[in-house]
Design a protein that fits this description.
Layout lengths: L1 H17 L1 H11 L4 H11 L2 H12 L4 H12 L1 H13 L4 H9 L3 H9 L5 H30 L13 H10 L6 H17 L7 H12 L13
Helix pairs in contact: 1-9, 2-4, 2-9, 3-9, 4-5, 4-10, 5-12, 6-8, 8-9, 11-12
């Protein structure tokens, strides 16, 4: 019964998160990437916040190095998630270990650690079902968004020029329920706004990401995972 409930939760999260891939695909094409480059980002990077940051920097006129650095900083949080998940996933070796690393994201971590601490199988089920579910949905819907985005003309006519910020906010909003996260987010936002008039494109976002990482925003705590 518990495993069925866990799978149902994982599928719900997968579909809800995967839907943002439509916005990412369209925004990526609008920023100048082609369909295949957009799909490669989702397949290889597979981290919504990092991907939106990458195309946001490119779309604002930033260079590829600034975009890659910003994306990397935001992606470092997944390494912290791996530390928190290690006791749940052991023992794991070979290709399963590599696959687990690829699908260690916000959602798979949250669903896994939201299960009872004494029910290891439910935690592992939550991790795998959510990680793989989001991966499949995100990549499929990214492709759809990229194909649609290449055919709709000027993205500003459809409001897609603001979609990256809106989708990114929707992705991080559930993680701002605690005062520490709110304080870090506010500090990062103030720094980014202060740097925007004087810094090259991409640098404000990179600085904000650095603040979040240094403050340990991405470090998973059991009491901070939503039930």
């Amino acid at each position: 019964m518990m495993l069925d409930a866990t799978r149902q939760q994982a599928l719900s999260v997968s579909l809800a998160t995967g839907a943002y891939g439509l916005s990412f695909g369209a925004l990526s094409v609008a920023a100048g990437l082609d369909v295949w480059q957009t799909c490669a980002l989702s397949l290889l990077v597979f981290s919504g916040g990092s991907q939106f940051a990458f195309v946001g920097v490119i779309g604002a006129g930033g260079g590829p190095w600034a975009a890659a650095a910003t994306s990397t900083f935001l992606g470092l949080r997944n390494g912290f998630y791996g530390v928190g998940l290690a006791p749940v996933m052991r023992p794991i070796t070979g290709w399963r270990r590599a696959w687990a690393a690829q699908v260690t994201i916000d959602e798979s971590t949250a669903v896994a650690l939201a299960q009872p601490a004494d029910h290891r199988e439910a935690r592992r089920t939550g991790f795998w079902w959510t990680g793989v579910g989001v991966f499949l949905a995100w990549n499929a819907i990214t492709l759809l968004g990229a194909l649609l985005g290449s055919r709709i003309g000027d993205p500003a006519d459809w409001g897609l020029d603001a979609a990256a910020a809106a989708a990114f906010l929707a992705l991080v909003w559930p993680r701002l329920a605690h005062r520490r996260a709110q304080a870090v987010a506010a500090g990062a936002a103030v720094l980014a706004l202060a740097l925007t008039p004087v810094a090259p494109p991409g640098v404000p976002v990179l600085a904000a990401a650095a603040i979040a990482i240094l403050a340990g925003w991405g470090h998973p705590r059991l009491e901070e995972v939503p039930e």
